[in-house]
Amino acid sequence: MSFVDQGELRRIVADRLQSLQMAGVLQLPRGVRLQPMVDRAAATLVVGPGDGNVAVSVEARAATETSASMSPTVKEPLHVPNQSAVTDTDSSMAKKTGWQATTPASLFDTPRTEADSSARVLTIEILQQQVASCTKCHELASTRTQTVFGVGNTKTRLCFLGEAPGADEDKTGIPFVGRAGQLLTKIIEACKLKRDDVYILNMIKCRPPGNRNPLPNELANCRGYLESQLDLIRPEFICCLGAVAAQNLLGSTLSIGKLRGKFHSFRGTKVVCTYHPAFLLRSPSFKKETWEDMKLLMREMGVEL
Predict the structure, then answer these.
(1) CB–CB of 55/77 below 8 Å?
(2) CB–CB of 45/4 below 8 Å?
(3) Does the chain have fewer CB atoms within 10 Å around its N or its C terminus?
(4) Buried b vs exposed e over 2-40: b needs ≥16 C-beta within 10 Å?
(5) In this structure, what are the phi and psi dihedrals at residue 47, rounded to the nearest 5 degrees?
(6) What is the pTM of this model?
(7) Do the Cβ atoms of 10 and 53 come closer than 8 Å?
(8) Which of 170, 178, 174, 123 is nearest to 150 (CA)?
């Protein structure tokens, strides 16, 4: 047997364990640090002879330290097919999400196929539970009534993305239920859709005090939850509502006036930006531009208006 480059393997193992930990699949007990586990796991990753398959094992000492409070525990070698065995489904998913499997990153990756409905809901529920218990932003966690995760069809083609919950959302736990939410519902229905046909969520999951804009650190703390949520839903289209959502999702400093009216891309998903419904309530003259954005989006989706 021959050893694979240890530095590269440590990076791969660390990235994958962090992803599993964020998704709720891997729970580390209090006081256990991730890096020593990464070092031990990487030290025992070896390439088997013959077919090029990779056998993964973890030293017994690492398993003993964590088995009492960590689930799942790896007890048997994990064999992963060669890269040539990747299916057409994987290729199409890679184009859609921007995710590309590389070697040896595929050591821990299984083919991304369409999960059944119950499994998808369960995964969304696990992520929602993590969000509900999050205290990364002390001010938001101490002033919120509850977190506002998202609502709608988790198998939708279209997500509407706002910036943050308001007072009504904080009370109900549902995004866009106040006056701005009522206007958003009318916009959706004008597009010959229903709220139940789409998924609605925000950049952050807690209401900022006084309905102020989210702070940079708050957006950063919630970014992992947002991206995991979008990864689970896998929409074809995202409609960003307002400058905060558009600029932060796309990593742009352009104004909403310059971002609207065209398509952008976020990890392979088509993104259109338009004005926030709350802004339209204050400035109804911009409803015309918003409707033009919706017509652009619906044409791309194949919906006739």
Answers:
(1) yes
(2) yes
(3) N
(4) eebeeeebbebbbebbebeeebeebeeeeeeeeeebbbb
(5) -95, 120
(6) 0.62
(7) no
(8) 174
The structural domains of the chain, ordered by start, are 2-107 (no CATH), 117-301 (3.40.470.10)
Q: CB neighbours (10 Å) of residue 282?
A: 9
- Give the span between the Cα atoms of 272 and 274, in whole angstroms: 7
Q: By C-alpha distance, which of 54, 9, 62, 56 is closest to 32?
A: 62
Which residue shows structure tokens 């094992």?
Answer: 57
User: What does DSSP assign to residue 166?
Assistant: -
User: Which of 8-17, 33-42, 68-77, 150-159 comes out lowest in average pLDDT?
Assistant: 68-77
pLDDT in tens, 148-200: 999 999 999 999 999 999 999 999 999 999 999 999 999 999 999 999 999 99
Rounded to the nearest angstrom, the gap between the alpha carbon of residue 61 and the centroid of all alpha carbons in its chain is: 34
95 is written with which tokens?
A: 């184009």
CA distances from 92 to 21, 100, 101, 157, 169 (A): 26, 10, 12, 16, 36
Neighbour order of strands in the sheet with 269-274: 151-152, 199-202, 158-162, 237-241, 269-274, 263-266
Does the pLDDT at position 92 exceed 50? no
Q: Could you tell me where the DSSP H helices lie in 133-196?
A: 138-143, 167-172, 179-190
pLDDT, mean of residues 262-271: 97
